[in-house]
TrEMBL record, chain B:
Domain of life: Bacteria
Domain ABC transmembrane type-1: 97-329
Stated name of the protein: Peptide ABC transporter permease
SUPFAM superfamilies recorded: MetI-like (SSF161098)
Compartment(s): Cell inner membrane; Cell membrane
Amino acid sequence: MANRATDKPPTQTPSALQQYRYLASYWLLPMTALLSALLAGCSDNTAQAQRKIQGIVYCAEANPVSFNPQVTTTGSTIDIIANQLYNTLISIDPLTAEFRPELATSWEISEDGKQITFTLRKGVTFHTTDYFTPTRTMTADDVVFSFNRLFDVYNPFHFVGDANYPYFQSVGMDQLIRQIVKVDDYTVRFELFSSESSFLSNIATDFAVILSHEYAMQLVELERKQDFDILPVGTGPYKYKGFLRDNLIRYHKHPGYWKHDLAMDQLVYDITTNNTSRIAKMLTKECDITAHPSATQLETLAARKDIRVDKAVNLNVGYWAFNTEKPPFDNVLVRKALAHSIDFQKIMKAVFYGNGIQARSILPPSSWAFQTQAMPSYDPERAREFLTQAGYPDGFEMDLWAMPVSRIYNPNARKMAELIQSDLREIGIRATIVEYEWNTFLERVGQHEHDSVLLGWAADTPDPDNFFSPLLSCTATFSGKNPANWCNPEFDLLLTQALDTSDLQERKQFYQQAQQMLITELPVVPIAHGMRFQASNTSVMGIELRPFGGISLANARKN
Amino acid sequence: MFADFLLRRLSLLLFMLFALTAFTFALNYLFPGDLLTNFSGELNANFSQTQILQQKYHIDDSLLVQYQAFLIRLFQGDWGLSLSSGQEVFGHVKQLFPATIELCVYALIVALCLGIPAGVIASAYHNKWPDKVISSLTLLGFSIPVFWLALLLIMIFCLSFGWFPMSGRIGLLYEIPPVTNFILLDIWLHDFPYGGQAFADALHHLTLPTVVLAMYPTTVLVRFTRDSMLTVLEQNYIKTARAKGLNRRQLILDHALRNALLPVIKQVGLQFSTLITLAMVTEVIFSWPGIGRWMIESIYQRDYPAIQGGLLAVSFFVIFANMLADVIHTLLDPLARNQAHGKV
């Protein structure tokens, strides 16, 4: 087929060229216009660099489950909300472990330890947001309301969200507080049934935030009580602006923050569930700070001049918990067999890349009550013996739940689960790995649907009780926070005895007995204590890496 | 004549919509899980809520009544609640779909601006080097999988050079109140906040996803334009024009192009379904907050009301886009109106 259009005598070549030019200009005109507009935009950018908006972008690993720290203990949520939106009455100094005044300027404990009186700071303003404008500063009413919501069934908000306050219920605070009294506008007295040595540390956790009573009453009037935990009002350095699920959370500066004026105009949480994407966004400077960079990528990040990698000791433990109410895991011999079948060295190498400490007890070595325990060693022969004694010479089938997100105490639960799976196969146990979306996962573990689960705990206070009561006590079982579903009255007695005394040596003894008991009973196998990592752009300063509790960006700023 | 054609198309449209809604309705029964939850998205409803929902969704009535109620809710914008977010599915769709349409439209504009001239040039220099270069590039572009191209571009332009951002529609610190949910339009409506920086930033974010998404339609358009142009250039009226002494520029631009573009216009409409599919992949890779990414997330999370809503919205859109292209094509080409049966 001869094409007429191209089949031309040579004399017409100039015209062809002309036509090409014509075509080119005809079509490329809009493209060149667009391109030049783009370039103009770029040069604009540099000229207006000074006018650029001030703000920090933090790449977070999961959606928050709530905007009220009272109703959750999920670490990824607490990291986002607690220290940015709220304040507590007192806090704990990360270096000296002493209590520091926050919203309470001073506090006094009565002789018998049953009455604690807080004097409140004056002139603390709540957030003015699109949905609430405060008319007064913080008073004792707000404090009484915030704690009454947790413990008082007559509080109109107590049953909002099914009255689930996991932290306070698991440490048994609801049975400890007799009443909370407003003495005058700036004095609040907590009256306890008995004195408890960890009371102040629990009041200093990220969960014990102060909420606005006025806002709550406004919601009652509008009949929108369920909004209380979704649209937050607090006293923190940032206030809530918007949340777009799977995309971002936007906070604005709280202009009247009582502590300082350091906050940036904006703090944005970019929700990026994929580990690799978070690192890539660090490289393209779309994130200023990223949560939990995985250990394999730390070197890549540290090699860059514009990125700083921080490393800090942290009070946490990653463990493997058995559902001790479900056969065959109710048999301690089976639990022992499982514990002896695991090669811990391999896990430390493959999952933590040498950036963790192998567990020698449930408590991390930096805790003052720590005592080295005789941990089960890697010994498949012995594991098989235990299995035979327990009546399962041929093994059995089980589920192994692995958490889907990277947390400080377990950077890669999936990989850990695969290693454990192959170790278990050696002793004839066929394990199936189960994964769910993070919030669903926690919910289902709370309902004890699992056989065994790889999970962990990061401490909220330096008090050793924080590793026992919220995790392994009977009350924790009822509030769904005890992943081992393990309720042992003897163990609980030890914990109560430790809390009843304020003598440090005595407490230490009780906690050492508790640690021993855990290793003999093995409701959970402690695996490792992770280090906290954080990658941030070198232009960001003032991020506080604490050994316990959530991340605080209250003082963070960018140059 | 044209009214007759429109009538045929509309009846076809009605049938399509019926089939689509009937299928979506059936999904409530086909999905695993509780029927009422699939309809409403209400998890753990208590007894009194269940009663109200049962009445609202006519669970105890015949399937026909249920389907009718389903249609009414559909038109009222009551598409149930998303299981994962607890918010209205229709609200999500309203918010996310414009982002996808925006991306598709820009990609299509780029494809038109590049594909048609390239096709014309290739046909004008049939079997000469420009044709060979364009054809080989087209074949290459056609064969590259979208996700691979996207990752490659991210690796080169985002991670190595740091020229472009790799996610989202705009730098997160720019706060643009959503009015139309088309980002460039919103920035314009908001009177270019931050001195046009936001606009430049949005264009900057747009570049890579647009290029990736434009790749496939561009190559298709090049090939179509080229082939259709070659066919037209074979025809007698062109030969006559040539015999009259018209030069090649006049021949192509004034006589051949108009006729050659007719099948291409139809092709543009058909591209929309492919484009939406590819947009889903692109959105996931570039974290573009569009409906495709949302639907894929919903599938992961077994969010049945959201899957239904997304499916409906996307299918509606593709059907309407096809129909529109068909009508425009017919307006421009009287011959096409003469078909006895409607086609999609």
